[in-house]
Amino acid sequence: MVFYKTVGAWHGMPDAPRVEIWARHALPLQDAKLPAMENSISSLQQRVFVALDVPSQERAIELATQLKPAVGGYKVGLELFVSCGPQIFEHINPARTFLDLKFHDIPNTAAGAARAAARLGVLMCNVHCLGGLQMMRAAADAAHEENPATKIIGVTILTSHEAASLQQIGLDKDPANAVIHLAALAKEAGLDGVVCSPQEIAAVRETCGEDFLIVTPGIRPAKSTSDDQKRTLTPRQALQNGADWIVVGRPVTAAENPLDAAQHLFDE
Prior knowledge:
Blueprint: E1 4-6, E2 9-11, E3 20-21, E4 48-51, H1 57-67, E5 73-76, H2 78-84, E6 97-103, H3 107-119, E7 124-128, H4 133-146, E8 151-155, H5 163-168, H6 175-189, E9 193-195, H7 201-208, E10 213-216, H8 235-241, E11 245-248, H9 250-253, H10 258-263
Parallel strand pairs: 4-5, 4-11, 5-6, 6-7, 7-8, 8-9, 9-10, 10-11
Antiparallel strand pairs: 1-2, 1-3
């Protein structure tokens, strides 16, 4: 299904006015179980997860509250979840959250973790594709059985990697080929999509098809630094290339005015 950007809304109807195609593969918001957005939020901003990579519940709640009018959802990762536990979802709506814990264990353990994540009611959770086909399949089956509304996706190659660092850990493929290989394996395992860098979006889409979710970190606005990310693009470029969701962290959360930074992510 193709979704068109019209004045102030996304539509899944083929006869809708076709102003620009921005997210050909994105879930409609109602299908993604997201609550109604603020009237002022743009169709591009609805595809942004802001990464709440902070050490305290108080700071996470402050950022989530401040950024609610400007982003589609939140990413809760290892730092915040280890600091606060699942209690963080008493304050941050799980139905607008990507739980980014990257499960990587034997199949039975990964399945149990995926089941628990789905039980929390999160929009999305993930596993490491390097855990292998059986692990991914076990996690996908468990999550889908527990809560069909929760999407489970696979982390391919971290955006901090480049060819040299992959060789250090014994992977002879360059990042792009490794991502394509792992994405195909994730689809075979029954995952709903993958996490990949902006530079591999088009290749993953070609390999895995129109209905496969692509979530893209490593997003850096035009005027920001790359920090420890190696394979990056701007927010607008990533969505134009076919990402369904983008994840933005420090360019927003470390800004002097996070709300202003979020509202101007697509200024290029």
